[in-house]
Amino acid sequence: MMPYAMPPAETKLSIRALAGGYFGSRNDFSERLSAFLGTPTCVLADSARSLLYLVFCHLRAKAGSGKKEVLIPGYTCYSVPAAVVKAGLKVALYDMDPLTFQPDMQDLEKKINNGTVAIVGQHLLGIRSDIAGLTEIAHKYKTVCIEDSAQRFEAPLSPRKQATLADFTVFSFGRGKPLPLGSGGALIASNSEDLAFIAGEMETYPEKAGKYLMPGIVRVFSHPRFYWVLEKLPLGLGRTIYDPSFAVSNMPRLYQRIGSRGIAELDKLNKHRAAIGNIYSAHFSDKGGSHFNISDLPLVRYPLLVKNRKPLSQLTKYGVRQLYPLALCDLPPLQDSLATSRERSPGAREIAARLITLPTHLSVNKYTASHILEKISKADVI
Q1: CB–CB of 349/326 below 8 Å?
Q2: Structural domain span for residue 288
Q3: What global pTM score does this model have?
Q4: Which H helix or E strand runs over 271?
Q5: What is the pLDDT of residues 236-291, one digit of tens each?
Q6: Domain membership flag for residue 1
Q7: For residues 341 and 247, which has the higher predicted lDDT (pLDDT)?
Q8: DSSP letter, residue 128
Q9: For residue 240, is it within any domain?
Q10: Which end of the chain has fewer beta carbons closer than 10 Å to its terminal beta carbon, N or C?
Q11: Is 171 contained in some domain?
């Protein structure tokens, strides 16, 4: 029997988008993205974590030596604390509600202090978070809110969103993200002077060489019959790594050209994700097993809290995976960079212990989704 491994999230765009990257001359991704977001301009970089790092450096310089902490969710991508640490700041954690993935606002208000440089909010897996509430608290304490929208990218954006609710919003275009170009990130801001300063800093970083064959390789090997090969290669697929020594560079022009064509495919990707998510939601709602208000949301991966993850190995070939294996308070290499050694995040720990994710990408149709649900039921994990 041939090996079979379905990707956990979308890793590729169409042949047309790739051809535009390799053979086209169109390189107006920044302009098209700004128009899509309803903002005058945006800043591009090789990754969202690079942009977070530049924002943190900028805020640290503006705040002076008295402010040294960034408040982030207790369960989030390890790139976020890596960017904080690279900027020379300390990581403070606020807890999350494990049944909704929303910020624990009471815990956040206990943690915020005169040394807080910024609060980071996230849309984990694409579930809309209360960024308005986070921004209100941030401004109340005379600090700023950064919206981590790496896993949420919808169209069209509402007028409220177009006004940039948070002080800064960062998007990611890496593999598995809503618009999976394979590399890149974008930043918008409510203050044009802040954005202009960061854009000036970004201009000092050159474009890194390499990665030019990667979009084509990923396009071919993302097929379930071949995806296992990608996971065997040292590309970081399927692994979440904490690395504050990452390099910063401009977004490669190849990926910008792919983005110029690929942004037109976002609506199709999001509609498909929402449709597959609704199949999962209907199934688990009937069983009383869904705690999330996620109907019609274009989730990059569908979340499910389970009582037993031991049978998970039986489900990985169907794209069922963990997300981040540890809450940040339990991540060993981060301990020396925490604002306090007494950081405790029980809600985040519960998410880390119980969360699995189901695929929603274009390779999953309603029959595949039903098959995945059948396998989950037989594995007795719920």
Answers
A1: no
A2: 266-379
A3: 0.93
A4: helix 266-286
A5: 555 678 999 999 999 999 999 999 999 999 999 999 999 999 999 999 886 655 55
A6: no
A7: 247
A8: P
A9: yes
A10: N
A11: yes
- Whether residues 255 and 273 share a domain: the answer is no
| Bond into 156 cis (ω within 30) | yes
| 185 within domain boundaries | yes
- Token readout for 154 is 């919808």
Co-location of 161 and 208 in the same domain: yes
2 pLDDT band, cuts 50/70/90, is very low
Judge residue 222's burial from the number of C-beta atoms within 10 Å of its C-beta, 0-12 exposed, 13-18 middle, 19 or more buried.
buried
Q: What is the mean pLDDT of residues 53-58?
A: 98
Token couple for 179: 């618009």
Strand-pair category, 185-189 with 168-172: antiparallel
Confirm if 251 and 46 have CB atoms less than 8 A apart: yes
Number of domains in the chain: 2
Q: What is the DSSP letter of 367?
A: H
Nearest partner of 120 among 84, 154, 86, 152, judged by Cα: 84
Q: Residue range 368-372: average pLDDT? A: 94
Answer with the one of 264, 280, 314 that is the final residue of a domain. 264
Unique residue bearing structure tokens 């002077």: 193
User: What are the tens digits of pLDDT across the range 116-132?
Assistant: 999 999 999 999 999 99
